[in-house]
Write a structure and sequence with these properties.
The chain is an alpha/beta fold. It contains ten helices and nine strands. The protein is about 35% helix and about 20% strand. Helix 6 (about 70-80) runs parallel beside helix 10. The model has no long low-confidence stretch (mean pLDDT about 95). The structure holds adenosine-5-diphosphoribose (APR). The site of adenosine-5-diphosphoribose (APR) has 22 residues, from helix 1. Adenosine-5-diphosphoribose binds near residues 14 and 91.
Amino acid sequence: MPNMRNILVLTGAGISAESGVATFRGPGGLWEGHRVEDVCTPEALARDPALVHRFYDLRRTALAGVMPNAAHRALARLDAAWPGGLLIVTQNVDDLHERAGARRLLHMHGELLSALCAACGVREPWGDALPPQSECPNCGMLALRPDIVFFGEMPYQMERIEAALAEADLFVSIGTSGAVYPAAGFVRLARHHGADTLEMNLEPSEGSHWFAETRRGPAGRLVPDWVETLLADAG
Ligand code: APR
């Protein structure tokens, strides 16, 4: 088996679809219910904080009713058993990777179960509704907002992601449309650094042509198959 010491996995909304969490694009997608500009930009938050907070409150409280699926569980198995480097970079803001047991994980677009203070920058675990003008437990300002990276804001931990891409021997993309940068550009960065590349997605994505290998189908079937084979080959 070629040297696959360091693996970087990128996940998108498609990995949570079989758990019943709506994706963003496509029929019935989250954005179909709303214009992005109305619920996921700094301008929207300033213009209509009640609408933005309500949009994320609905998604936060809906998390209680969903469970990780076989794809999340397979990545958690990989996380526990893989002897080399592994980083799961998720664009998702749900907590399904964590609840499946993943540890080597980061959320580049933020997390529903966290509140961010726009005044002092502190993050607070947050499981309930988050009304506008909520008081920050750290600085006391009425400045708590959803801890979500809005369009036009910088994704989190980009230096850590870029360092992992530079070291990756294998870059795997699961359940993302490749529509949003910088995540959509990760496959090219990985290839530039000599990594092998694999995409697992229900349908062709905007970046499929950049991948050395693409597998079509539901993540709940493809990801466990991939993980089992990888761990078996690693011996
Ligand atoms: N298994 C695998 N892939 C699936 C499944 C499934 N069961 N169901 C859907 N998909 C695929 C779709 O074919 C689509 O390509 O998942 C992808 C989901 O794409 P999007 O809805 O665009 O979600 P994502 O790529 O995560 O969006 C990226 O855009 O709106 C912003 O911040 C938001 O993080 C999000 C980012």
